[in-house]
């Protein structure tokens, strides 16, 4: 059986620890290739927030692409992938996805994911959200993407940021067609 492929995009918004946790969780998926597209500012944020270098990232994925390589495999609908996650998703990247303005490999891969009707999961990172941000989030949802903001589940009583990052990454993985369930669930108050 051929390996499944998942595209992970990283844009220049805060949230590097969730990105790293997501890539680590994806490493445990059997027969999954992770194809990584990291923007220049995504890499700068990863270095600033988590001390992660491009070489470190390459060790957490099957293949890493230069964001300027619009001729790379993920730019085509014939590149078979189970879906794509953009973690974190800056408001600039969100605007590019909504408008179809594919001026980078990350944006083109997201555009292809939508046009091929594959799952696209976005973790937007901005606070507070402006009316324009909310309009773009609504628009991308209407286009078929799943929006997963980095909001912890307090009912799980997270004690550390690492637990919160693990929760958020697990929610993102759950939204992808990988068949994974959350390691915790709400069981009600009674």
Automatic annotation (TrEMBL):
Pfam families: Flavoprotein. Its EC number is 2.5.1.129. FMN binds at residues 12-14, 39, 90-93, 125. SUPFAM superfamilies: Homo-oligomeric flavin-containing Cys decarboxylases, HFCD (SSF52507). Keywords: Flavoprotein, FMN, Prenyltransferase, Transferase. Residues 5-173 form the Flavoprotein domain. One of its GO terms (molecular function) is flavin prenyltransferase activity. It catalyses: dimethylallyl phosphate + FMNH2 = prenylated FMNH2 + phosphate. Signal peptide: none annotated. Dimethylallyl phosphate binds at residues 155, 171. InterPro entries: Flavin_trans-like, Flavoprotein, UbiX-like. It is an enzyme of class 2 (transferase). Belongs to the UbiX/PAD1 family. Flavin prenyltransferase that catalyzes the synthesis of the prenylated FMN cofactor (prenyl-FMN) for 4-hydroxy-3-polyprenylbenzoic acid decarboxylase UbiD. The prenyltransferase is metal-independent and links a dimethylallyl moiety from dimethylallyl monophosphate (DMAP) to the flavin N5 and C6 atoms of FMN. This is Flavin prenyltransferase UbiX. It comes from Flavonifractor plautii 1_3_50AFAA. The lineage of its organism: Bacteria, Bacillati, Bacillota, Clostridia, Eubacteriales. The gene is ubiX.
